[in-house]
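User:
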Amino acid sequence: MTGILAGLRIVEGSAFIAAPLGGMTLAQMGADVIRFDDIHGGLDSDRWPVTHDGKSIYWAGLNKGKRSIAVDLRNPRGRELLTALITAPGENAGIFTTNMPARGWLSYEELSKKRADLIALNIVGARDGAAHVDYTVNAITGFPMVTGPVGHAGPVNAVAPPWDLATAYAGAMAILAAERHRRLTGNGQRIVLPLQDMALAVVSALGYLGEAAINKVDRPRYGNEIFGTFGRDFRTKDGRYVMICIFSDRHVDALAKAGGFAQAFRRIEQEQGLDLKLEADRWNARAELCAVIEPWVADRTAAEVGAALKKEGALWAPYQSFRELAADRETVLDNPMFTVVEQPGIGSYPVAASPLQFGAFSRQPPAPAPALGQHTDEILSGILGLPAAEIGRLHDAKVVAGPR
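Assistant: Predicted structure:
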């Protein structure tokens, strides 16, 4: 591997989203990330979405650029091998990340007996040990009660898993922070990252808890309107939708110029005693602003609306489906972050590399995800130093496995 983290080795025991995405984030910056799974199949090896013949696109998406070793996790010899892999010597090794139960042979206490400066990240559901996933965590945050159309009575779940995503990147950052600490002090680190606490930290940082505690209110639903400023979806003449927002003085002027709204905007300010350069005033005048913008959008095609808004630098975007996004030349196909990758067993499709751009390193194209156990033999020989005969005996005893 090449990249800013080249030479750093991380062993990963993971499932779901947060842990494998955190590991892939590091792999795409050049780290050697080795994930281990049971020889009978990883928890995610057939998770949806899948191809028509059942191959997991989910697995391929979250494990790009990693190496894979398949071991019988119930076999004492298999556990010995993984313990040796996690605690292998080397100043750039001895880093372990997991969202599995980190107890028994996988506990920090047991692993650090083999390597005192071990860095181990354990992603858990809640700080008290209760099981949670993104969707159960989201239920307690308050967001499902303000998501959805005005007047809707029940909760509306998120489609994207925001807390898994935040935890993944926080976990990657935590590993790098602990690795820096080890280089400076020689000390290892046990890191615990509760998914629930990650969500609560974000709810606190964005002011939702403060608003509820100080103002003694529950925020109502506002549908697709952006709270506290101006932004909403609008339907075009040809039945498409665009998002139009205002977040700065420049956006006000650009939108006014694009749609010829300058006079109408001045009238709103005069009649309402408002200043549309102020976020609070834009929020309070949102109905009047929509009354001006909506008929203009409705009288034009999506292409015409987009051309006018783009020309003046307004803040907007077209709504599109996943299939439309996959075929979008400007956003995906001509984007240097994407490469059309041939994923064995699945096919060719655009795959993203790391979104980070480091001046001293050229961005590396994305590598396919491994087959389960694809690198078993090279890891056993190259890192653990096992001879070929011993590796063969391990295969015969079904302690390890190669790709199916």
